[in-house]
Amino acid sequence: ETVGLPLLAGITEFFAGDYGKAVQTLTPVMPDVQRLIQGSWAQKDIFQQIHLHSCIRSGTPGDLAIAREILDQKLVNRKIKNHTPLNERFIKKMLTVHETQG
Length: 102
Fold this sequence. Notes:
Blueprint: H1 4-15, H2 19-26, H3 30-36, H4 41-58, H5 61-78, H6 85-101
């Protein structure tokens, strides 16, 4: 209930196009998703991808900073030094959005 309901609400907000609200709803529960939700890492990664896409599509500097943190944490979790090509695309998009806003 403390994770499942907010997770469902955040996913609903994402698919409704309310990305900023999705970020607000998902960010507090994401640390608990991997620990409390049943399923494989790949299945749970879908929730993280929705959170990441919400941050990027919201486009606010604060949400873009959260997106960067998510991508950087992936490096730590996977014990790798460089981002994957997919993550590099996300980073480039974030920088482009940030530059046009600034």
